[in-house]
Amino acid sequence: MTKQLDEAVIHDTHYDQIMETMQKEPYANHLGIRLTDLGKGTASAELVIEDYMLNAHGTVHGAVMFALADYVFAAASNSYGKVSVGLSTNMNFMAPGLKGSILTATATEAKKTRRIAWYRIAVESEGNLLATMEATVYRKEQFFVPVDEDK
Q1: Which of 19, 77, 119, 123 is the right S-S partner for 84, CB 3.0 to 4.6 Å?
Q2: Quick one: average pLDDT of 47-74?
Q3: How far, in Å, CA of 73 to CA of 126, rounded?
Q4: Domains by residue range for the chain, with CATH
Q5: Distance CA 55, CA 76 (A)
Q6: By C-alpha distance, which of 106, 103, 102 is closest to 44?
Q7: What is the pTM of this model?
Q8: pLDDT tens, position by position, 94-131
Q9: Is residue 123 a contact partner of residue 72, using CB atoms and an 8 Å limit?
Q10: Which superkingdom, per the lineage (predicted)?
Q11: Rounded to whole angstroms, how far apart are CA atoms 71 and 31?
């Protein structure tokens, strides 16, 4: 039987490396998403809306909101330094994002087991809730930061 590592300690010990890994995510960087907070099972990011992010109606394209929500989901679920990959998401759109606005997304861990974790994500602009996401992640055995399995 494998010894259970203290993931909170791994987060604290390797915070800088975990944060750097999440900040280097290529697609998020392409869009201009900025990670603003990374906690144990939580993450927040923001995105300034540019003209190319709008749909035919002049509001933020749903794919842009999804990308922002998915990014904080990835950051929160990988915040313990353990490789975690998405299994499913469900997104609900409630209000449009507007040109020139700043969107913020926050992911919060609802429950975590050794293999699966569940997250709630909110996308907002100026205090207005635009969208929510519920997401499930599969937690692999390996870590992407160095861990001492003997401790």
Answers
A1: 77
A2: 97
A3: 21
A4: 8-143 (3.10.129.10)
A5: 28
A6: 106
A7: 0.94
A8: 999 999 999 999 999 999 999 999 999 999 999 999 99
A9: no
A10: Bacteria
A11: 11
